[in-house]
């Protein structure tokens, strides 16, 4: 039976501007050295990575289907640019049986929101970045008002062979998706979105019969560059009631990541406990841009799980190593999905480098 991966969330236009350094004070000036337009958004980045891997001619996997369900886009210049760039993606045109997308374009007749999501990203030579967005909140507000049309008529919640993932940029929609997924025992990968799995309005009894992966960055936990605090944060989170039923993956960029919690073994129909363990990352040279590395890490997790057919203690190390290599190699190009690392590049990194 096929595994189906569904990604809901942000598809946007990224305007990336490269600068030498950020201004030292408010009102000062800094020069933009270069500016480029790219396809962006967390969901978009993960989708493009997964899509390219799934239709790789040497590793074509007919047992996995992938679908992107976008937040609403206005039929404006930004929206038309995004749609045209998706339609020109070769893997979508040639592999609709494996990879498909549902980009919702809406007419803004009632002035419900006025701009397709667009993000200005300023990247300095220290590889740090600052982002300014427009249209994200309006887009989600529209989705909430039209949740049947935008969410529940487009996403399939059909149980153990289905995975749903989504973005931090759509918090209210994400809450709705989480509750529906748990109600239907549909596997979840939650990215950077805070959620309390102790809420009384979710199907708590189902948590022990499904997979929930909670991937979050130290950017959100205030433990960046502090290994011991990062590990302690994970342990504290898992000790909070029903959170123990999840597998938490807490990433700290080039420093590494820590995992722990529980996974559901589809083969044995049981939950398996994952001891807290730290992974060093693969060493990546010539890092250009970290935009989208977490999205590519997520794509690597989902791809490797689907490739193994299920997630279990016996294959967890391999799954995590593939995700780490994916996220790291994505830093060697500009933008979140400008150039997806190939499967051969990922396998070569894994064979020539070690990860603890």
Automatic annotation (TrEMBL):
The keyword Transferase applies. GO terms for biological process: fructose metabolic process; regulation of glycogen metabolic process; response to fructose; response to glucose; response to insulin; response to sucrose; response to zinc ion. Gene3D superfamilies: 3.40.1190.20. Coiled coil: none annotated. Signal peptide: none annotated. Residues 280-342 form the Carbohydrate kinase PfkB domain. GO terms for molecular function: ketohexokinase activity. Keywords: Kinase, Transferase. It holds the Pfam family PfkB. SUPFAM superfamilies: Ribokinase-like. Transmembrane segments: none annotated. GO terms for cellular component: cytoplasm. Belongs to the carbohydrate kinase PfkB family. This is Carbohydrate/purine kinase domain-containing protein. It comes from Tieghemostelium lacteum.
